[in-house]
């Protein structure tokens, strides 16, 4: 089998498809040397093709898949040596280690090596988490951290005479799902074998520092699993321990200690190893390895740019997820340290840098709690702090994880808690992680009853509106959810070319905003969809189609005056990146009908699984300016 191509400069055909028998836990000299060569080859390949993601701007993750190569190579040999004994799938509860799945698909001849250099790019079918049915050779969808072990308990129940492996991590093991999975695996004596990379690194820090007392091994032993710890880089001992686990009955956890990205100069043992390796660090590694063709390829990559020029918005790009933290700091600065400690508590879930909470951490560490990958528990802790009138809990994570907190949101409401929540990475923009990390179902947070404790959903359109929104709602009671995107957004301009949310602007909760007046009909939008809608409206006006645009930054409150205004127009089109089934559009038509308002109505939103890449997600869903323009023309006939 030849899997080297002109566009993949590492000769993967050098991988030797060795077969090992778990009944023999001792490696021969030849087997050991073959495994070592395979490990080095795979690690070189992972450094190279994940670095193409860094070079092309789509990001990715290097350290996790790089770490676990020894385990994966051994499992691959065991699957080949005793095929009837195993479910031959590299199930992995740390889905961002997707490079493992892609590399093994190539080595098994199910995916071409040349495809790997398009890692995470739009249309390449190599998203940031594995998706079953999308990528040849990928045999499962991983979803988010900590979701696979509970799932493969069912796989083990369906295959009672076979061993099922789960590649785990110390980060994934912080999720509450795994505690439930452990109890079932032990109770039913399931033949599940966990192989856990315990490298003491997650996105924002080191678990040994932010969760002192937490031990993966002790926790799993406490649930009743057989646990053994060892050095993940000691090949002979690693193989022996895996064989011991395989030949033992029931659930076993192998906890493998090692530094993150061991041997990669500049990122070994650091949090930087969690993410994609920077191109310069990869080049240094590959040069040291003598892989000059791989170096030449990396240096030749040009980062693609979106050449579309948006009109109706300015050139001041702002990162709303960062501005959230800056705006909170601005409010906190006006309180004394005593007041801050008494009234405010911010709880992170290992994503402070991604959600802007690091700004709060840096400025006011006295009210900041660094916590683990435990979204449900951390949200509830923030809600508990905010139970007393006058106190505010602050919580932040990715919007995709809001779905995991729905029950806790209900409990916070029933306990009259005051929580200011920031869910970043909403929608689909710049989301190379793809479908499982889309923030689509944010309206799930609005799950209370009409007479329940107040819940408000806000989605500012640009940095100035984000700052004004935080200022306006910070001290309000109830549950306040503020959403932002992974991508930066430009400043929105009014019809005169001035900043819509410029000097003197005040955010009024519950009020919609006229961005452009129009007589042909109105588009309703918000968040990062708004500047795309402005562009569409401006281009339609140039074509003689006088369409108006409304910004609805408070998503779940009806502005009766604005609803009456747009309801008298010839058409209403809702444009959003939320799920078409659960987003604003799924409600807006009902609001109109309930008031006897019957314009033509349509709704554009995310309606299919993603295509990878960054800005490319928008046109793929048909919610880019071209898609909006086409829909308007369809409505006006």
Automatic annotation (TrEMBL):
Q: Name one GO cellular component term.
A: cytoplasm
Which domain of life does this protein belong to?
A: Bacteria
Named cofactor requirement(s)? Mg(2+); Mn(2+); thiamine diphosphate
Q: Domain named Transketolase-like pyrimidine-binding: which ranges?
A: 318-491
Q: Matching InterPro entries, A to Z?
A: PDH/Transketolase, THDP-binding, Transketo_C/PFOR_II, Transketolase-like_Pyr-bd, Transketolase_C, Transketolase_N
Family statement: Belongs to the transketolase family.
Name by which UniProt lists this protein: Transketolase
């Amino acid at each position: 089998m030849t899997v080297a191509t002109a566009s993949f400069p590492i000769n993967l055909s050098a991988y030797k498809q060795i077969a090992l028998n778990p009944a023999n836990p001792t490696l021969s000299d030849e087997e050991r040397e073959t495994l070592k060569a395979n490990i080095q080859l795979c690690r070189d390949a992972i450094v190279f093709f994940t670095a193409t993601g860094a070079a092309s701007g789509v990001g990715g993750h290097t350290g996790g898949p790089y770490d676990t190569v020894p385990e994966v190579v051994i499992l691959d040999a065991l699957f080949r040596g005793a095929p009837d004994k195993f479910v031959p799938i590299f199930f992995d509860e740390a889905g961002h280690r997707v490079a493992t799945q892609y590399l093994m698909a190539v080595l098994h001849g199910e995916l071409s090596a040349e495809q790997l250099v398009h890692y995470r790019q739009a249309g390449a079918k190599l998203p940031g988490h594995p998706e079953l049915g999308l990528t040849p050779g990928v045999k499962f969808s991983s979803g988010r951290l900590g979701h696979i072990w509970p799932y493969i308990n069912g796989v083990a129940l369906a295959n009672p005479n076979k061993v099922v492996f789960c590649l785990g991590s110390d980060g994934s093991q912080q999720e509450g799902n795994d505690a439930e999975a452990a109890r079932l695996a032990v109770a039913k004596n399931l033949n599940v074998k966990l192989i856990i990379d315990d490298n003491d690194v997650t996105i924002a820090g080191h678990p040994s520092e932010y969760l002192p007392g937490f031990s993966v091994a002790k926790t799993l032993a406490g649930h009743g699993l057989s646990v053994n710890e060892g050095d993940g880089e000691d090949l002979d001992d690693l193989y022996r321990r895996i064989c011991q686990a395989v030949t033992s009955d029931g659930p076993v956890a192998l906890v493998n200690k090692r530094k993150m990205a061991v041997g990669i100069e500049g990122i070994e043992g650091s949090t930087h190893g969690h993410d994609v390796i920077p191109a310069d660090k990869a080049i240094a590694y590959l040069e040291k390895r003598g892989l000059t063709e791989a170096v030449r390829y990396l240096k030749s990559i040009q980062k693609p740019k979106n050449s579309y020029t948006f009109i109706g918005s300015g050139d001041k790009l702002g990162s709303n997820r960062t501005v959230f933290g800056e705006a909170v700091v601005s409010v906190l600065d006006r309180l004394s340290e005593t007041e801050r400690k008494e009234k405010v508590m911010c709880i992170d879930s290992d994503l402070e840098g991604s959600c802007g909470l690091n700004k709060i951490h840096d400025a006011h560490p006295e009210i900041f709690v660094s916590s683990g990958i435990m979204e449900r528990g951390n949200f509830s802790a923030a809600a508990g702090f905010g139970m007393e009138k006058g106190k505010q809990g602050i919580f932040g994570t990715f919007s995709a994880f809001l779905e995991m907190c729905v029950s806790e949101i209900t409990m916070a409401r029933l306990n009259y808690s005051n929580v200011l929540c920031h869910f970043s990475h909403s929608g689909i923009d710049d989301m190379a992680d793809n479908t499982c990390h889309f923030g689509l179902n944010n309206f799930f947070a609005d799950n209370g009853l009409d007479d329940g404790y107040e819940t408000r959903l806000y989605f500012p359109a640009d940095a100035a509106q984000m700052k004004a929104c935080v200022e306006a709602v910070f001290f309000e009671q109830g549950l306040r959810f503020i959403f932002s995107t992974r991508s930066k957004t430009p400043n929105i301009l009014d019809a005169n070319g001035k900043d819509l949310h410029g000097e003197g602007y005040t955010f009024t909760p519950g009020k919609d905003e006229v961005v452009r007046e129009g007589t042909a009909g109105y588009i309703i939008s918000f968040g990062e969809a708004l500047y795309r809608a402005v562009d569409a409206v401006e281009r339609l006006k140039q074509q003689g189609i006088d369409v108006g645009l409304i910004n609805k930054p408070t998503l779940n409150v009806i502005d009766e005056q604005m609803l009456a205004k747009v309801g008298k127009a010839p058409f209403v089109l809702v444009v959003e990146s939320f799920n078409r089934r659960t987003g604003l559009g799924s409600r807006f038509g009902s609001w109109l009908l309930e008031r006897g308002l019957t314009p033509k109505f349509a709704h554009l939103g995310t309606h299919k699984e993603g295509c990878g890449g960054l800005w490319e997600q928008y046109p793929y869903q048909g919610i880019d300016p071209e898609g909006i323009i086409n829909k308007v023309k369809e409505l006006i006939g």
